[in-house]
Amino acid sequence: MVGRVLEDGPLIRPVDSVSTATLVGLCIGAVILVCMAVATWWLCRRRRGHTKLGPDKSLAFRPPHRKPTAVKSPGSTSHYLKKSPSPTGPAKSPPGSGGNTPSPTGSQPSQQTNNQSSQARSPQGASTPAQTPPGEITLTIENERDKAELENNEKADNGNVNQDSNKDCLGQLEFRLRYRSEQNALVVTVVKCKELPARGTNSTSDPYVKLQLLPDKQQRVKTRVLRNTKDPIYNEDFTFYGISQSELQKMTLHFVVLSFDRYSRDDMIGEVVCSLSSVTGLEQNENHQLTLCREICPRSLKIQSQGRGELLVSLCWQPGASRLTVVVLKARNLPKMDVTGLADPYVKMYLLYNSQRIAKKKTHIKKRTLSPVFNESFVFEIPNGGDGLANVCLQFLLLDWDRVTKNEVIGRLELGSPKSQGSALSHWNDIRSSPRRQIADWHKLRE
């Protein structure tokens, strides 16, 4: 019958209908999730497109962000080093982009009046180039970074030639000193530089002066950058607080004159070292400033007077695998590159085949030492088909790392070169005549 319900059948009830608000909410949530997924995919793709470099592109130079910090006095925590405003007017900004790039001297940027170049520079030393497989060796330069480094090396060599030709006329630095005993403060005024040499391909320079008080090395200041001049006038005052009369005789002023470079590390022109104990009448002249003028000396004179040191390397030639194993062990008797009497050395190696660089390697930097111990091993693949090591040359460069200026070459060593002689020639002949044998020897570094 229609109106009756069977006792053994299931109880059937009507299903509640879904409201319209619930359906709308589910649809909106699905649309939001799809939009977020599409936006995430688009951002990731755009980021990869910006960071990836093509074969003909180079990464634009981005100056490192340096946060300015106050220089505290070593004797007091309540005083800071103060810099008085320059009487010559607003400072010009260094050659940056758009006039908003912060000056490397820490001064505030101002409006720029000269046109600026938009050239880019590829980074150096970002990573070690990949080793070439033993089966196939290309005689071309490995990548764009090698080309850029070769151009920079040529630029540095040209700069060194210019520096050697002008090492007797690097100019002069004029500065003034005044000691205030009631405040225990030393006032140093960087007045000007005269007859500075031209740097690079330009006939002028973009000079600025760094100043630090030794032996603390904690109080460091810089002048502003003056563009396109060989006779810059700064007239900038720097006051060092917390210096007693007894400490005054133990301190030394260290001036470094540099030329600002937008695409590379700043080029060092020279330095001036002034011991305060040699300045007579500094403590007695309370109301007078002592004007001093010193010749700017090149840093290469230090290397020439102290020698370039020695390098211990071990070589092993494996003709069956066409492989040359190089172990850079250690160095000794290195010259004092820093004002603290130490250096930050590291070794860079180049493999040349038919006078063309096909591979490069470098060791880690050993900080603050004149007797570094590297103990680092490197493997160079020699091109197949060549007459062993007949057309191969191995170059070693021992450099001093510097955070601001260009890394300075301490000494060089060439093995396998036609110009090799002495220990370099005998060492190379030993590894060729005794394959599969590790042979080590000391070598004097040359200019």
Keywords, separated by commas or semicolons:
single chain, 447 residues, alpha+beta, five-stranded antiparallel beta sheet, four-stranded antiparallel beta sheet, 5 helices, 29% strand, flat
Outline type: flat
The helicity comes to 10-25%
Report the C-alpha radius of gyration, rounded.
Answer: 32 Å
Number of DSSP helices? 5
Number of strands: 17
Note poorly predicted spans.
53-80, 84-145, 160-167
- Secondary structural class: alpha+beta
Give the strand order, joined by hyphens, for the main sheet: 1-6-3-2-9
Order of helices and strands: HEHEEEEEHEEEHEEEEEEEHE
Write down the overall mean pLDDT: 74
In whole angstroms, the N-to-C terminal distance is: 116 Å
Major sheet description: 5 strands, antiparallel
Can you give a write-up of this model?
By secondary structure, the protein is α+β, with helices and mostly antiparallel strands. Helix content is 17%, strand content 29%. The protein has five helices and 17 strands. It has helices at 20-51, 144-165, 245-248, 300-306, 423-433, and strands at 82-83, 172-180, 185-194, 207-214, 220-222, 233-241, 252-259, 267-275, 290-295, 310-318, 323-332, 345-353, 356-362, 373-381, 392-400, 408-415, 439-444. Strands 1-6-3-2-9 form a five-stranded antiparallel β-sheet, with no helix packed on it. Strands 5-4-7-8 form a four-stranded antiparallel β-sheet, with no helix packed on it. A hairpin with a 7-residue loop joins strand 7 and strand 8. The protein is flat, with a radius of gyration of 32 Å. The protein starts with 19 loop residues before the first helix and ends with a strand.
